[in-house]
Amino acid sequence: SSLTCPHCLKQSNTFDPFLCISLPIPLRQTRALNVTLVLQCERWRFVRVGLAVPLRGTVADLREMVAREGCVPPEQVILAELSPRGFLRSLSDPEALAAAGEAGPVYAFQPPPARRAVPRPEEPRLQPSTARSSDCLHRAPGGRILLLLCNTAGTGPQLARFGPPLVLREERGVSWEQLQQNILAQLRGVLRGEVRPPGTGALFRIRLAGGSCTYLSPQDPRPLCHPAIDRALQLSGAGGPPHVRLTVEWDMSTKERLFGSIQEEAVQDAESVRQQQQAHGQQHSCTLDECFQLYTKEEQVRALPT
Q1: Which of 117, 138, 200, 230 has the smallest C-beta neighbourhood within 10 Å, fewest atoms?
Q2: Which residues pair with 53 in a beta bridge?
Q3: Quick one: pLDDT band at residue 198, thresholds 50, 70, 90?
Q4: Which keywords has UniProt assigned to this entry (predicted)?
């Protein structure tokens, strides 16, 4: 047994005979976690990758791993859990990684590139009798926010998510009609029916995800300036850009007319998914030499206070 003082580096060696010895067994330090990347490219827009995440790691570790897989800066990665019924929660960096992916699959969103907002002509001031509560919060007409959206159809037990989850960057002062058109433009790849011309009413409802029953109103001149949007931005966790999760709710007849029988998005599995499942699916084994290496591993002994 060798003991070295960290201050004076004096070393003490003692020799003890062993007739028997109890060896520790090294345990697996990682687990397999599949993450679906939602990237800003048409060819690899939806791809599921397999990662070996540390058992005692944090979401910050997962963000770094996803950033390397998607070749994007870590500060641009948005991590969220989704279920077959919609959004569950967003993941923030300080959270422990042990529970990630248990409630639902993990998705990693890459926001669209920021572009310079085009200045708008000054809008007429609203009279107090027609002003809404959200108007007073609209301090920056050119401000833009990130929106995560998922589409659902049905009610009660039949409620189900369909189509791909979306991420888009919108101006806070956008009207309902323009927001609706922008959402439909993101869904053009899965639309199959004719869409009514703009200005003929709302095709869907938009609800703030996360246990809230707050709906954005089509009659609001600036629906993204709702006070609930401000609260959601303030509660956005550490890590990744601030964002708001929204659920787009369709009635079944409109969904069938425009999308047919489409279910969830089609995701391509990368080779790493099979590799991680194979590596972590096998029974963990170790050699006697690995047990000895763990037993003789150097450790820091704390000095008792005098």
Answers
A1: 200
A2: 31
A3: low
A4: Hydrolase
